[in-house]
Amino acid sequence: xxxxxxxxxxxxxxxxxxxxxxxxxxxxxxxxxxxxxxxxxxxxxxxxxxxxxxxxxxxxxxxxxxxxxxxxxxxxxxxxxxxxxxxxxxxxxxxxxxxxxxxxxxxxxxxxxxxxxxxxxxxxxxxxxxxxxxxxxxxxxxxxxxxxxxxxxxxxxxxxxxxxxxxxxxxxxxxxxxxxxxxxxxxxxxxxxxxxxxxxxxxxxxxxxxxxxxxxxxxxxxxxxxxxxxxxxxxxxxxxxxxxxxxxxxxxxxxxx
Length: 257
Fold this sequence. Notes:
alpha+beta, 17-stranded mixed sheet, 17 strands
């Protein structure tokens, strides 16, 4: 069967996007999903996303990592599927959709897609790093000379080491540019490599930097290998609330395979 797909990217975090409102896609075929995401033998992407109908929301987002397995929340993927839903005519400039971690609101303004993330009430701090979950688990640590830092080797070691083990964690390395700007490089589990950008990752970095006192701002600029993202938030009583991930989301091309 010929499959129609769309390629989307958000600051270099790229996805194979499929309109699955007619339930045409076999979600159990991990080998096929992995093949589609393969950069040498398939289309090439950090993950695959299905847009499906939902009984009460605008749509449902189903996300798979490049290894073919359904995964936790993907922030840039959530922004890209919002742009895809707009392209399909499913939404106009606002959306409410369901992902694996619950309901999300999204909006499209001035060419940027903003995604509301889940509230975060638990942040763990250690001598060497910070850990929190922004829909996906994230290990965050400061790094000197980020441009030459060996993200792939060190990220892989942390990703599957104690205490994360087989389940793993995404790993973010951070350097401070100014009071409201940080550079970030991310090793993503499931992709098992550095990605150009990670939406849940930069969200986690913004909250962590505020939590540990590296910034007092509540609108943070995050510079990734693939471009610039922004994260805004409010500090509530014991939690971070009204968290928004903001940045571009672009259709690259449409294809058939």
